[in-house]
Amino acid sequence: MYDAIIKKLKQLGTKRNRDRMARFGINTEKAFGISIAELRKIAKPLGKNRSLALKLWGSGWHEARILASMVDEPEKLTERQMDASVRKFDSWDLCDGVIQNLFKKSPLAYKKAYQWCESEKEFVKRAGFVMMAQLAGSDKKADDKTFIKMFPPIKKGALDERNFVKKAVNWAIRQIGKRNTALNKKAISLCKELLETGSKPAGWIARDALRELESPTVKGRIKGC
Asked: Is residue 90 in a domain?
């Protein structure tokens, strides 16, 4: 099955898609050039298959790794596997896709978010904040305190000038602030604290987040929840 899938990925890949990926800042050194929509079509009939997922990840191919995140079993993830995987992230879409498809569903998700956001490696650090953003958007059972606890590492991360980090920090703030009215107010207060730091990346993060969090659209949506 593995060999057949890799063969199919090679056949589906196009230079046009690779060029498009490169324009969006995606590392195409080991990419076939396949859309996420196509990968989801391939993943659907495969179901959950951990053995296959590990082989696909081990191939090193960009799309094969994203496909692996679609078919792996989140409850069987180990810390060792998750840590090894994030160290291989070399593009924002691989980072975000693996977390959205797989890592956020793991019982280890919160623990890893806090650990990774302290890393000095750009994509590992991004992974920590993307995890926070994904959990804020998907974990409907979590209470407000769960996300307020994320504010200290978010404030610290907001000082990082690296593009992929600051965008993830911004995403985490916006997702937390869109959960409900109480968290919206606290996220807005956090943004105002960031503006007072005088930090250029923190200022960009705060201003961009405030545009959404203070918008009538967001205010109206969370008020109606």
From this structure: no
| Gap between the Cα atoms of 184 and 216, Å rounded | 12
> CA 144 to CA 148: how far, in whole Å?
6
CA triplet 132, 115, 84: central angle to 5 degrees? 100
135 neighbors 142 (Cβ within 8 angstroms): yes
Kindly state whether residues 150 and 53 are assigned to the same domain: no
pLDDT digits (tens, 9 = 90+) for 1-19: 999 999 999 999 999 999 9
Mean pLDDT of the chain: 96
- Shared domain for 113 and 192, answered yes or no, is yes
Judgement on whether residues 137 and 60 belong to the same structural domain of the protein: no
pLDDT at residue 105 in the model: 98
Distance CA 107, CA 112 (A): 10
* Number of domains, the chain: 2
CB 39 within 8 A of CB 70: yes
pLDDT level of residue 223 (50, 70, 90 thresholds): confident
Domain coverage including residue 22: 1-72
67 lies in the same domain as 99: no
**Claim to verify: residue 123 and residue 159 sit in the same structural domain:** yes
* CA angle at 85 for the pair 178 and 91, rounded to the nearest 5°: 65
Asked, for residue 173, whether it belongs to a domain, the answer is: yes
pLDDT tens sequence across 87-126: 999 999 999 999 999 999 999 999 999 999 999 999 999 9
